[in-house]
Design goal:
59% helix; mainly alpha
């Protein structure tokens, strides 16, 4: 995998920071990064929960469109990693 530089996203509310962060996280997963090797920091548990929920929702949507495949594999991998983290279970829920 190509080594990437750290990226800082700094902007006011409603400008798409979470969307940008989710897309970068998914790109990294799709290119072979392990979920536990990706660091994303937010200021609140609520923001962390929203971040994880959007990742799960996007992976679920992509897996339905693709009929499974890589998005479904990545969804399962992320869910397994989240199950092993007590703080992640308390801040995010699976999409319904």
């Amino acid at each position: 995998m190509t080594e990437l530089k750290n990226e800082l996203i700094r902007a006011s509310a409603g400008t798409g920071k979470t969307h940008s962060l989710v897309q970068r996280y998914l790109w990294l997963l799709e290119h072979g990064a392990e979920p536990e090797r990706i660091a994303a920091m937010t200021f609140t548990r609520k923001a962390a929960g929203e971040f994880f929920e959007r990742i799960l929702q996007e992976l679920a949507t992509r897996s339905m469109k693709a009929g499974g495949g890589l998005p479904l594999t990545l969804l399962r991998k992320v869910v397994r990693r989240m199950d092993s983290c007590a703080w992640a279970r308390s801040t995010a829920s699976l999409p319904r």
